[in-house]
């Protein structure tokens, strides 16, 4: 696959829309950066075939971007729709590869095609915070008072904010029209009161999440593309489902239960206290767990990746596990009736100490 294949792909995508000056300028900018990206891939040792695929898949959903710009479809474009969609669907499988490419365009796109608007709000007595976002980086930190504070910048047009003071539920929703090939379309900052008991529910398609050192009752998070990182958090109950991205949790207080499911990414969990129940599943990635204190049951399943467990303050474990093509090193005494540890991996090593 050559550099020319990238041009042909862009010609196909843009041929569905009227060639206004705005559309033409965007196409030229994307092509120029795509060529630079292709050259970088070749310089880094990729084959022309792999480099071309990487660049094309990284472009993502150009159709949605053009619709977002209100580009006018050509009247004869329907015959091309299924072909373009095939390319777009293939690109979604390479979300991680497209992330760095999208970041190159993010600021340019927001300044040219979207009005920048800062949003600020404060909410008192919040019991549940629900975020339904398309493309946003989210950063949590500790509030300066007893309120939940929201600050958002970038592509905030159409952002829906609803507060139910009777139930203490705050819902923040980004419209689907904001979806584009660019990651980080919106930058959202949320401050949570210290020692809060709020329940946080997050659904996002693209963007990273940083939890800071907040204290909350529970976290439910569903991510399509992006990393989740916490440092010194206190979360009683955690459930994270990530299709493409790493999950790194640092908990400084004991937790009741933690569940991490990731299709493509590493799961890294460390807790200075005990976690009563743990369930980790990953299709492609390593698992690293470190806890302190006895537990009820840990279930860890990995298809392709190594699993390492550091179990401090646990004299022995009731272990069951297997690996098809890896080594097993259990450096903890084994006994029945205590902390139950189940580890299974198809391709990877298992280490428990």
Question: What is the structure about, briefly put?
Answer:
With 353 residues, this protein is α/β, with parallel strands linked by helices.
Give an account of the 3D structure.
With 353 residues, this protein is of the alpha/beta class. It folds into two domains: 3-93, no CATH class; 119-352, Pectate Lyase C-like, CATH 2.160.20. Helices cover 25% and strands 43% of the residues. It has six helices and 22 strands. It has helices spanning 3-14, 21-43, 48-58, 62-68, 78-92, 95-113; strands spanning 119-124, 128-142, 147-154, 160-164, 169-173, 186-192, 199-206, 209-210, 215-225, 228-229, 234-244, 247-251, 255-264, 267-271, 275-284, 287-292, 297-304, 307-312, 317-323, 328-330, 339-347, 350-352. It has a 22-stranded mixed sheet that branches. α1 packs antiparallel against α2 (21-43). The radius of gyration is 23 Å and the shape is flat. Mean pLDDT is 83; it is low at 76-116 and 178-184.
What attributes characterize this protein structure?
353 residues; alpha/beta; Pectate Lyase C-like; 2 domains; 6 helices; 22 strands; 25% helix; 43% strand; flat
